[in-house]
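Supplementary Methods. Inverse-folding protocol.

Structures were first reduced to a discrete structure-token string of length 204. This string, shown here, constituted the complete conditioning input.
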């Protein structure tokens, strides 16, 4: 992807981040077995073998959703991006959460190779995290959800118009959290973890 239009450090970080998220979200969907393995093709990214959706609509959904976050990531308005899996009643079964923090005061040149090397470790970790997560039912559905620190105004930003409020049901109990990988650096902090529905009943 061309990064010429993102010359500020935050713009460079955000561009690298959306490229990473597109690959990582596809990896999560592949990992969870929502579609047959034949629905994906193998590609190379950051010198790793990763998966890309073959179906144009699936590929476009992931691409457009993640790239639509670019202007908001540049301004650090995105707190979390989640891949949410639902049962047939519309209740979330599991969430894969990417918690983000772009340092707005960072003014140095972005060391692209170092940042990509750090993000590469997430793509190594994700494919082996399957045993830590739930087995999904065959009739589940999924979506990409973004959690904004501050709600963008649709009237002043065309980029905000593609994001609509989620009507997904919420869990009654705090979720069970399974950490997967974390990164804390000067320009970018990132945590990836899975949230599962907590079915235990609290005792009085």
């Amino acid at each position: 992807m061309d990064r010429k239009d993102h010359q500020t450090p935050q713009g460079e970080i955000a561009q690298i981040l959306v490229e990473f998220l597109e690959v990582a979200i596809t990896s999560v969907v592949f990992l969870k077995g929502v579609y047959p393995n034949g629905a994906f093709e193998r590609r190379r990214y950051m010198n790793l073998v990763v998966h890309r959706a073959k179906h144009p609509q699936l590929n476009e959904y992931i691409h457009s959703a993640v790239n639509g976050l670019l202007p908001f990531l540049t301004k650090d308005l995105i707190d979390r991006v989640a891949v949410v899996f639902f049962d047939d009643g519309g209740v979330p079964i599991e969430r894969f959460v990417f918690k983000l923090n772009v340092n707005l005061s960072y003014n140095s040149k972005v060391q692209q190779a170092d940042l990509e090397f750090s993000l590469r470790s997430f793509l190594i970790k994700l494919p082996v995290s399957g045993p830590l997560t739930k087995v999904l039912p065959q009739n589940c559905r999924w979506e990409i959800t973004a959690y904004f620190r501050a709600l963008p105004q649709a009237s002043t930003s065309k980029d905000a118009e593609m994001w609509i409020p989620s009507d997904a049901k919420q869990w009654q109990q705090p979720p069970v959290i399974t950490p997967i990988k974390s990164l804390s650096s000067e320009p970018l902090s990132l945590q990836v973890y899975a949230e599962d529905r907590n079915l235990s009943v609290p005792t009085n």
